[in-house]
Specification:
By secondary structure, this protein is mainly alpha-helical. The chain has three helices and two strands; from the N terminus they run ββααα. β1 and β2 form a beta hairpin. It is flat, with a radius of gyration of 16 Å.
Length: 92
């Protein structure tokens, strides 16, 4: 955390212009199937709802992400990813 490793996953500039989303739809990982279905329907692409479960059992440890934050780490991440957290209406 102190070395800023969490900053490597900052994607907001990829899908924004002048700090505003430059896309019409942002899907959520938590609702991947219905969001993908919506996109496919809007593009007239068939989608039967099936997605592979390539890494479903990859993690042995299933702790909640909040269990990994100590002291002010959560605040550091919250501040860095504030735009995405707010945009996606996540509670952090």
């Amino acid at each position: 955390m102190k070395n800023g490793g969490y900053k490597k996953a900052y994607n907001f500039p990829i899908y924004s212009i002048e700090k505003q989303p430059a896309i019409g739809f942002i899907g959520h990982y938590e609702s991947m199937n219905p969001d993908l279905k919506t996109v496919c329907e809007n593009l007239s692409i068939p989608f039967d709802g099936w997605l592979p479960n390539a890494k479903g059992d990859y993690r042995i440890n299933r702790h909640h992400y909040r269990d990994y934050y100590h002291n002010n780490h959560a605040e550091m991440v919250r501040n860095y990813y504030e735009k995405e957290i707010d945009l996606l209406k996540y509670v952090f």
